[in-house]
């Protein structure tokens, strides 16, 4: 207890972010990862004796600094990275200083400001407060042992993001990994054309695992396990007996869909008001980007609507479909017809004219957002214990048409399934058709990694994947 | 949809007013009316006078225009285009409009495909008079009044070609139809003329190849401009066929083949029909346009997602006026005017094309000019090497692997 207090005093006047432009220094909130690392870097005997590690992992900041690509998010924008230099040249601005880029690659300390007025702390890339929230009002208190007795809703009021809640957590990831126009975060078609790597499909459980996680799931946290069930649920969103992975997969799928629809609605509203076309980043890349094969498998397969209309980017609708199908077996209402109706409205809005009818898209997407919020209310109540996990996995493997999935959709499904298979299981057959092409922050070459990732995407064979997917489950 | 509506409206009008005047448009009589052995069905070799019908029926692809509708590919694209599993290309008015124009006045003539009258005009009013001496004394305008199309003069002829080979409002190959399986249209008159099994002897002047290329370029551009204006008017959002096919339709691993200057990821206009205009103007002399012709403002608008339809229409109207004036002047270019051909040929060899369409049009221009220059086997062979760089790979209907660098180095090797 003494130690907790001493720590607070020593940091009573925290250093501001040692930021170079475009930050002007006016940051009442950011403490910078350096401050956090003082305590979260490595195990300390006294902390251990005081029970600190009953709830957090000792080396969270070290994991972030050494293995988590978020710590290099701003660094990759530097012109020493050939891809960043190429992008700057193509886009006509310095990506290391452009608000549109820094909105995701650094910590935006002016979240609600318009892009032009934004200020960033970028030295540490996406640092602690990028996800956990600005620490000014809780930095001191959170070092106290009594902090764990404070209700999450109180902590949220102070600015600490309630990341133990899988829905809040996935939504936070989605602001960058899907996009969020209100926060100025959106990877546009121009950015992709200039060389921005394709965004990986956001599967919450997999992203959390591969980040890699600098926390333990509630079922592995001694303090949470020691709590009475109601308190574990209320304070840590961890009802006893439930597993993190399936809850994260299920809620994450719906959140990803909701945030995708929200981004689409926001951009479509802009276009409906200002004219022009919806940003091409909302469309299925491969609807346009393919060589014109003869005979054409598209013509053989047929079109869902008017031939040749660019379709909406594949959304995680099959994954959400399986989550809702499983939820129904646990007693929630049947949401499948609603999902079908919402998607049909959205597809028809895209089909009305080339590049879609903006007002109709905005309305259909907004309705999908509302529906997702309702579905989250259902999914929140589903019990994801061992049996629930297995049933969800079965639903995921049985739902949708794998032969119709593009690379991103297939990757999302495979990741969701893999996240539900026990950790001890060796990587399954899906890995053989979906080689990971992630970017290792240590390799230093985004350029090389990107090339191999694009090669994998382009050589993706839906038929081969579908066969592996429908085959026996990995043992 | 507009097309369907107007057809429906027409059908209703005809049904309601059975006693109305006969339609102003004369009727078709069908190829049978031309095929008598004493007339055009002489049964001789391809191209022999008196065997025009025979030539058409044995060697001219137009005679198969209806039959291709009934192939599996034709039927499939119609089902996709109509989004109706029962759709039938063989009776669909949109298909017949080009594949069997004579069916528009008599459905039983559809099996003729693109018959004589599709290009020469409906013969109801002139079939029994066009071989009389009096006919020779009529001028083009008088013949046109009777429905006869003046295909002897290049302008009239190419205007007939572009109705289908470029399209006109209400009768076009739009992106919906292309996505359903129809090939994109890439009309270039001189190249088409060259491979066409001709049923006439061209009274060709020294500059026929270059003149037909020039007239073809200008009339093609004019027809395309009319379509662009109509797309802006009809307010159905962007017409994807007005955009460069291969700036979007390409795999994402290779080099971009459309290097037209534009912001990253921006659209690029389909400039096939406009790519050769500048070179035509550079022929100089009687080939020069009477007033400056610049397609770029229109192409810029077409390539910009936020363009106002009214601006597109206005730019199109301006361009169209200039092109039509130019086409009328080009028709009068004397047969001996050929001085500019060599200069333009030499200059084109140094052109830096920015995409496949422009590269292909450069090659086609040089081929046309080459035919008007003194024969040179070396030049011919070197043009063949340029052509090789433009070929699509087997099984792919887009320039996968096309390299502007390879094209330009082949161009450097073209013998003057």
- Helix and strand sequence of chain B: HHHHHHHHHHHHHHHHHHH
Q: Spans of chain B with pLDDT under 50 lasting ≥5 residues?
A: 1-20
Discrete helix count of chain A = 24
> Helix content range of the residues of chain B, please?
40-55%
Main sheet attributes: strand count, strand direction, barrel closure of chain B: none
User: Radius of gyration of chain B from the CA trace?
Assistant: 22 Å
> What percent strand of chain A?
under 5%
Descriptive notes:
The complex is a heterodimer of chains A (475) and B (416). With 475 residues, chain A is mainly α. Helices cover 51% and strands 1% of the residues of chain A. Chain A contains 24 helices and two strands. Chain A is globular and about 70 Å long. Chain B has a domain of 237 residues. Chain B has 19 helices and no strands. In chain B, helix 11 packs antiparallel against helix 17. In chain B, 42% of the residues are buried. Classes of the chains: A mainly alpha (475), B mainly alpha (416). At the A-B interface, helix 10 and helix 23 of A face helix 3 and helix 9 of B.
Which features characterize this protein?
heterodimer, A: 475 residues, mainly alpha, 24 helices, B: 0% strand
Question: How is this structure best summarized?
Answer:
Chain A is built from 24 helices and two strands. Chain A has helices spanning 2-10, 32-40, 45-49, 60-67, 82-91, 99-105, 128-132, 152-158, 166-177, 189-194, 204-210, 222-225, 229-236, 244-274, 285-288, 297-301, 317-329, 336-351, 358-381, 386-398, 407-420, 429-433, 446-458, 462-470, and strands spanning 107-108, 120-121.
Explain the layout of strands and helices:
The complex is a heterodimer of chains A (475) and B (416).
Chain A: H1 2-10, H2 32-40, H3 45-49, H4 60-67, H5 82-91, H6 99-105, E1 107-108, E2 120-121, H7 128-132, H8 152-158, H9 166-177, H10 189-194, H11 204-210, H12 222-225, H13 229-236, H14 244-274, H15 285-288, H16 297-301, H17 317-329, H18 336-351, H19 358-381, H20 386-398, H21 407-420, H22 429-433, H23 446-458, H24 462-470
Antiparallel strand pairs in A: 1-2
Chain B: H1 2-16, H2 52-59, H3 72-82, H4 93-99, H5 116-120, H6 133-136, H7 140-145, H8 154-165, H9 175-180, H10 189-195, H11 208-234, H12 245-248, H13 277-282, H14 296-303, H15 309-330, H16 339-349, H17 356-372, H18 377-390, H19 404-412
């Amino acid at each position: 207890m003494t130690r907790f207090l001493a720590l607070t005093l020593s940091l009573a006047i925290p250093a501001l972010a040692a930021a170079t432009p475009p930050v002007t220094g006016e940051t009442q909130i950011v403490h910078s990862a350096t401050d956090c690392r003082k305590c979260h870097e490595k195990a300390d005997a006294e902390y251990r004796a005081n029970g600190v590690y009953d709830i957090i992992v000792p080396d969270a900041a070290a994991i972030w600094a050494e293995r988590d690509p978020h710590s290099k998010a701003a660094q990759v924008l530097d012109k020493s990275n050939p891809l960043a230099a190429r992008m700057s040249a193509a886009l006509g601005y310095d990506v290391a200083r452009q608000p549109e880029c820094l909105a995701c690659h650094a910590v935006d300390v002016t979240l609600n400001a318009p892009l032009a007025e934004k200020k960033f702390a970028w030295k540490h890339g996406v640092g602690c407060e990028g996800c956990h929230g600005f620490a000014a009002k809780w930095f001191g208190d959170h070092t106290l042992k009594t902090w764990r007795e404070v209700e999450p809703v109180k902590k949220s009021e102070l600015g600490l993001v309630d990341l133990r809640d899988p829905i809040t957590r996935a939504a936070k990831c989605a602001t960058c990994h899907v996009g969020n126009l209100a926060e100025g975060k959106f990877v546009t078609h121009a950015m992709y054309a200039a060389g921005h790597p394709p965004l990986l499909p956001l599967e919450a459980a997999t992203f959390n695992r591969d980040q890699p996680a600098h926390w333990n799931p509630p079922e592995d946290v001694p303090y949470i396990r020691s709590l009475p069930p109601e308190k574990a649920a209320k304070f840590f969103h961890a009802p006893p007996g439930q597993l993190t992975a399936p809850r994260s997969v299920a809620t994450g799928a719906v959140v990803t869909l909701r945030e995708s629809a929200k981004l689409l609605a926001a951009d479509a509203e802009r276009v409906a008001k200002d004219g022009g076309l919806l940003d091409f980043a909302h469309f299925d890349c491969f609807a346009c980007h393919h060589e014109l094969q003869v005979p054409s498998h598209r013509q053989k397969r047929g079109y869902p609507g008017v031939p040749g209309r660019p379709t909406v980017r594949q959304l995680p609708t099959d994954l959400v479909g399986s989550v809702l199908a499983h939820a129904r077996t646990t007693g929630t209402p049947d949401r499948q017809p609603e999902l079908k109706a919402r998607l049909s409205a959205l597809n028809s809005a895209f089909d009305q004219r080339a590049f879609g009818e903006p007002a109709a898209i905005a309305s259909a997407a907004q309705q999908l957002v509302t529906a997702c919020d309702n579905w989250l209310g259902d999914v929140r109540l589903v019990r994801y214990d061992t049996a629930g996990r297995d049933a969800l996995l079965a639903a995921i493997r049985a739902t949708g048409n794998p032969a119709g999935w593009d690379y991103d959709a297939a990757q999302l499904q495979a990741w969701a399934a893999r996240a539900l298979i026990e950790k001890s299981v060796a990587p399954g057959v899906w890995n053989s058709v979906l080689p990971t092409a992630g970017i290792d922050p240590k390799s230093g070459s985004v350029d090389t990694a990107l090339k191999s990732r694009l090669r994998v995407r382009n050589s993706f064979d839906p038929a081969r994947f579908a066969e592996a997917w429908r085959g026996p489950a990995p043992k | 949809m507009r097309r369907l509506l107007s057809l429906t409206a027409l059908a209703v009008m005809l049904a309601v007013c059975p006693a109305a005047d006969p339609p102003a448009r004369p009727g078709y009589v069908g190829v049978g009316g031309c095929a008598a052995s004493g007339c055009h069905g002489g049964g001789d070799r391809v191209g022999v006078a008196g065997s025009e019908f025979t030539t058409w029926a044995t060697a001219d692809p137009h005679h198969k225009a209806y039959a291709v509708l009934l192939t599996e590919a034709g039927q499939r694209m119609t089902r996709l285009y109509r989004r109706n599993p029962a759709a039938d290309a063989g009776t669909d008015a949109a298909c017949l409009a080009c594949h069997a124009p004579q069916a528009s006045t008599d459905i039983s003539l559809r099996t003729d495909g693109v018959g004589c009258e599709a290009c020469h005009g409906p013969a109801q009013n002139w079939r029994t008079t066009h071989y009389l001496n009096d006919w020779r004394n009529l001028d083009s305008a008088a013949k046109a009044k009777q429905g006869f199309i003046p295909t002897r003069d290049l302008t009239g002829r190419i205007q007939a070609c572009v109705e289908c080979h470029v399209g006109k409002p209400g009768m076009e190959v739009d992106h919906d139809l292309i996505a359903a399986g129809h090939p994109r249209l890439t009309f270039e008159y001189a190249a088409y003329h060259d491979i066409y099994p001709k049923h006439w002897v061209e009274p060709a002047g020294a500059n026929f190849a270059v003149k037909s290329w020039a007239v073809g370029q200008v009339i093609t551009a004019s027809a395309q401009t009319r379509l662009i204006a109509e797309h802006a008017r009809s307010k159905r959002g962007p017409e994807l066929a007005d955009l460069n096919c291969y700036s979007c339709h390409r795999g994402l691993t290779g080099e971009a083949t459309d290097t037209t200057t534009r912001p990253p990821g921006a659209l690029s206009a389909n400039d096939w029909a406009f790519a050769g205009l500048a070179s035509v103007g550079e022929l100089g002399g009687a080939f020069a346009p009477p007033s400056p012709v610049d397609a770029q403002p229109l192409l810029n608008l077409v390539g910009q997602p936020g363009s106002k339809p009214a601006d597109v229409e206005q730019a199109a109207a301006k361009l169209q006026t200039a092109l039509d004036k130019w086409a009328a002047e080009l028709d009068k270019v004397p047969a001996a005017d050929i001085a500019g051909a060599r200069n333009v040929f030499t200059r084109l060899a140094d052109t830096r094309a920015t995409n496949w369409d422009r590269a292909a049009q450069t090659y086609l221009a040089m081929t046309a000019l080459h035919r008007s220059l003194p024969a040179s086997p070396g030049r011919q062979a070197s043009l063949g090497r340029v052509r090789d760089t433009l070929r699509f790979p087997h099984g792919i209907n887009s320039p996968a692997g096309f390299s502007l660098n390879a094209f330009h180095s082949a161009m450097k090797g073209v013998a003057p």
